[in-house]
Amino acid sequence: MQNEAIFLIEKLLNYYNLTSLQKLAEKLNIKQSSLSSWKSRNSVNAIKKKCRELGIYDEIFVINDFTSSPEYNYDYDYDLESPPSIYDEAQKKLVKQITKRRTIEEILKMDETIVISFVQVYKKLEEENNLIKLYEALGKLKYNS
């Protein structure tokens, strides 16, 4: 059986752009001997637990290296000569689901009155077919702050 822990430790090194186990241990706030133990014992569950603690579980266990890079374009238009594979489509869908989940988590942390007010304004402008006003206001806030 292949040692999955070695593969996952390599992913962690790549994720943090590190080249040594000592630096990775420091980044993970553990002893280097713990990393060595994870490798020798193939301790995938220990790595999963640490990734959950650090909030990087999805990046290490769900999203592959290609889609987690900043250059990945989720709305890439494929040409007919090289249609996307089923895996590519599934990966895109998964990345969008993770992004939505994280957005929802952020919204849940916000003041409820502000969220309700925003939703009411959105619905009113949507009824009036005038969402452009909201996009313009948000754009001004985003780029003029």
TrEMBL record:
It comes from the Bacteria. GO terms for biological process: negative regulation of DNA-templated transcription. GO terms for molecular function: DNA binding. This is Bacteriophage CI repressor N-terminal domain-containing protein. Signal peptide: none annotated. The lineage of its organism: Bacteria, Pseudomonadati, Campylobacterota, Epsilonproteobacteria, Campylobacterales. Residues 9-44 form the Bacteriophage CI repressor N-terminal domain. Pfam families: Phage_CI_repr. InterPro entries: Lambda_DNA-bd_dom_sf (IPR010982), Phage_CI_N (IPR010744). Transmembrane segments: none annotated.
